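Project standup — Tuesday

K.O.: blocked on the structure for the chain from last sprint. Re-posting the sequence here as requested.
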Amino acid sequence: MATPETRQKPNILVTGSPGTGKSTLAAILAEKLGFDQIECSKEIREHGLYEEYDERMQTHVFDEDKLLDHIEERMDSESGGVVVDFHGCDFFPQRWFDIVVVLRCDNTKLYDRMVARGYPPEKIRENVQCEIFNSIGEEARESYDEEIVFEVYSETVEQMNENADKVVDLFSQWMQNRQ
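H.V.: unblocked you, prediction finished:
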């Protein structure tokens, strides 16, 4: 089982409310760094890692244990170099991640993005409330060492590119600290 001390490359978690750009940033990082990407929502759908489908929220209710078991081997690899994106973060083992990026977004922009995706009103309301209270940022700070948690705004293409550059810099610092 790999740990931050034994991994050759860091594992990165990109988290935030739906619509903040997690999958987009994770894909950019995977490409720039030559890392593997695990888009948890996609894995849940494609591999049946859910308990049921919630019609009201129009989403799969994922099974934490099934998801963790499904990605455990990749996350515990000594090579590291995995970017994971998901809207939750408190159930992942702390040892899996060396850098945690929490994406934030103005509520009005987030609302508009979710409407454009066709989310039902209850799902939009719940996710906007999560963003207002910064629930995911709080979850990340409670679940991981604060020095590895970075909150950034993800409202424009320019910010997305700046965020990618910042994480690439964090990767470089992590690698330098290993030597």
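K.O.: great, moving the ticket to review. The mean pLDDT is 96. The chain is about 45% helix and 20% strand.
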